[in-house]
Structure formats: structure tokens, C-alpha cells
């Protein structure tokens, strides 16, 4: 087995594990088994006797709201358009399409799952305005899909291990920050965020694996055609 095959099978196994973790959490949420844990975590982040007020200095909630906006649809759309535009300029149309399709399909999955589970939001007010159901966290899911897809694409453009670690590490940190802010603001339960992370990561990784497989197939096809016609690429 070649190293590339090993990485591919490992990636597929990781996708399966992440989807499995999402399924287990979803089952526990539906059965109400996570309520005690979810409530305990949320209340540990609130001022005693004032559930509408997060712990910490007065400036912290505002700073957290700024960070959590990185996972909003409007901000993520700007990220995706900029990255896709860059990829088109450097003639990587297939990669640009992969990024756009990955993020758009992930957003659709998030919306559908929210409708299916229809979990009420935490009963905390005064921190942030929300309009959709709670499970899974849309910010966590779509930010994972967006940042991890972009991080993986950037990592694939270099042979430097340090740069690859930086790109993927930055994507992971941004994803974690967005999810944690949702819990701090009290607009999502911890299990909403964890489920969003799992499914979003699985979706990003799955799309990247498929994109790589298609690119490899196309490259092999072009090489075979060139050899058959007597040309060298």
C-alpha cells in the first residue's frame, strides 16, 4: 500500500468516526440524556443568580460576539468568495468549485438537520439574538466546513510541513473559537457545538478526499492520453 493510499484510507476512517460520534450525540440529545450536562456547563459560565449575564469583565461578551461573527453566514460567504476568487485567478477552477460546493452543501445540511431535530435554544436571554433551532450548531458546523476546507486546500499547495501545520492548525483554532463562543454566549448547548464540529469536520474532510480522488483520476487520464498520443506531459 502506498503512502497516498494509507492517507486516503485513514481519512475515510476518520470521516466515518466523526459521523459516528455525531450520531451518538444526536441520539443522546433526542433521548434527553445530555440535558443535565448541557445545563451544568452553561450555568457554570453565568453569573450566579443572573443567567442572562456571562461571567467575566464587562468587555468580554462584546469581544466574544465579535469572534462568534466569524462563523456567521455573511462573514463565511466573504471568506469563500475571496478564496474562490484567488483560486480562479491562479487557474485552479476545480479547487475553487470544490471549496464553494463543500461550503454550500454543508450549509444546506446544517439547515436540514436543524429542521429535523428542532431542538429549542437554551432559555437564556440578553446576550445574542438567534432565530433558528439549536441542534446542531450552525456556526460550529459551517465554520468547520469552511475553515477546514480552506486550510486543507492551502496545505495542499505547499511541500513545507511547517506551512501545512500552520494552515491546518489555524483552521482548527478558528473553528474551535467560533464553537466555544456559542457556548459562552449561551445560544447553544455544548452538545450542539460538539455535534456541529463533528459533522462539519467530516463533511470538509470527505469533500477534500473526493476532490483529491477526482483530481488524481483526471491527472492519470491526461497522462495516459498523452502517452498514447506520443506526447510527454
TrEMBL record:
KW Transmembrane (keyword) present: yes
Protein name: Phosphatidic acid phosphatase type 2/haloperoxidase domain-containing protein
Residue ranges of every copy of the Phosphatidic acid phosphatase type 2/haloperoxidase domain listed in the record: 95-208
Annotated source species: Devosia soli
Record key words, sorted: Membrane, Transmembrane, Transmembrane helix
Annotated InterPro entries: PAP2/HPO, PAP2/HPO_sf
Transmembrane domains' residue ranges: 70-89, 96-117, 137-158, 165-187, 193-215
Source taxon at top rank: Bacteria
A Pfam family it matches: PAP2
